[in-house]
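Put briefly, the fold is written as integer tokens. One such record reads:
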Amino acid sequence: ALWLWWWLSRRSQPADADPLALAMKLVNRGDDTRALAALDRAAAEQPTNPLVWTLRGSLLTRMEQRDTALDSFDRALHIQADYPAILVGKGNMLALLGRDQEALSHFDRAITSNTSLPELGAGARTAGTLLVSGTALTVRALVGKGKSLLTLGQPQTALDVFNQALALEPDSVDALAGRNHALNTLGNVMPPLNGSAAVPSDGIAHG
């Protein structure tokens, strides 16, 4: 009966056999500490997988471990230099560290890159708070670029960038908040939508 026990035990823990899949499930549940431990396992087993390092960097950003997050994004970029999700993640981290000029170059590279995320499977798609692709990723890059431009004292250029983001995603709360910030800086205050000010979903204020 030992073979039956072995077979059943293998079937009962399919997610644990893949630390990356397990990490994605834990990220989706908000269990960041256990997700990070699973990603550390995944990094040890798959050190050349850019997705592992990208997700790890994004998670560490959320956990406010900035230097470690930056190192993860650098590891990912060393593996695949034109991966837009990495470029946006590192750009956001550079902006948080006050290095907005460097952040701009990463956002621009992400916007123009044609490289798409690999097939990640259903588990990865559920970790949408950290992993986005396609139009949503382009909007995130544009919003990051706009915020850095505001910080660098270029509100008119920032306004143009936020409008580009809104052309792609008209309901983007981050882009609407950025546009209103730019207009306010330029002296063209718009009334808040629905009677209340828009709050960026990432909770990050620049400037």
